[in-house]
Amino acid sequence: MTPQTSAFCSIVPPHLLEHLARSSNPAVAAAARRTLVADAAARTFRVLPLPGAAPTLAPGDAGKPHRTVHDCARGTDLPGTKVRGEGEEAVADATVNRAYAGLGATFDLFLNAYGHDSIDGSGLPLIASVHYDENYGNAFWNGEQMVFGDGDDEIFLDFTLPVDVIGHELAHGFTQYTANLEYFSQSGALNESVSDVFGSLVKQYALDQSAEQADWLIGEGLFHPNVEGTALRSMKAPGTAYDDDVLGKDPQPGHMDDYVRTGRDNGGVHINSGIPNHAFYLVATELGGKAWERAGQIWYDVMTGGTLAPETRFDEFAAATVAATRARYGEGEEIQAVLKAWTAVGVPTD
């Protein structure tokens, strides 16, 4: 699969930042407006090769991470100054170390659970930049690398704090190199959902949690303590992640009856992702045990199976999960869990 030349995908949706930009709190509004401007610039920026020759991986390097973390020093020139490379000791900057560890946690899930060497399956070096811009309230994948803001310390804290945020953004790279789902409407919502799925699995794998033990929250720990909210999204209960005077209320639906039709946010990619998110949660908890083992394997098989078109819709993705489940597990409890989950969120599978 040929990767996209440019793929700006951020963890915080524009509708939320637009709401914050209208806040009566001047500091919150200014930070949100600055983030929106930076996002607009990054979204239209054509990805260029990173400085220096790309690393050539020796045969003995297969199955090993190749991480590099850079510091933007609150500027916007990417990638910034290299501050930590693969195998180097931790540095004094905790943000750098968290980014480095999160890249490793994501690499570990894909390799150990699925035999997938990095996000492209061929040992792609993982690159991150931290301290991007001033009071930048987002994190994004730009088609080549990860970028993290420090937050505004009013609504958002440091974006390297939740490991699932790191996993989520790198999973956009996984999608880019596999199914290459278009970032618009239902295929875009699936793109976002796949990132939430594997972001959550990165966290669960790192913590060795079962599906029952997991919180199924995306970005837990990202909000300032004064915010009335637990996370950016909830896969367990879409629409309940936050309800705050400044942030507003979480708009995610968990069922097709409440599907949001909008021209904003690329056709609601961050909003309607709650529907396939909830389906995955239902499959994982119905099967129990470690979610990456069976539920995650099914989603991985779909993404790497070569059957998805870039413009895949929810019902087509659901049908693909049914086919992948039958191919791997036959007619056992796995297929029943998958069929039951998609029915529960109102998505047909045939």
Automatic annotation (TrEMBL):
Required co-factors: Zn(2+)
Any single GO CC term annotated in Swiss-Prot or TrEMBL for this entry: extracellular region
InterPro entries: Metalloprotease_M4, Peptidase_M4, Peptidase_M4/M1_CTD_sf, Peptidase_M4_C_domain, Peptidase_M4_domain
Active-site positions on this chain: E169, H270 (proton donor)
Keywords from the UniProt entry: Hydrolase, Metal-binding, Metalloprotease, Protease, Secreted, Zinc
Name this polypeptide is given: Neutral metalloproteinase
Principal location listed in the UniProt entry: secreted
Subcellular localization(s) per the UniProt record: Secreted
GO annotation terms (biological process): proteolysis
Keyword tRNA-binding among UniProt keywords: no
Purpose: Extracellular zinc metalloprotease.
GO MF entries: metal ion binding; metalloendopeptidase activity
Family: Belongs to the peptidase M4 family.
Stretches assigned to the Peptidase M4 C-terminal domain: 179-347
Domain Peptidase M4: 94-176
EC number: 3.4.24.-
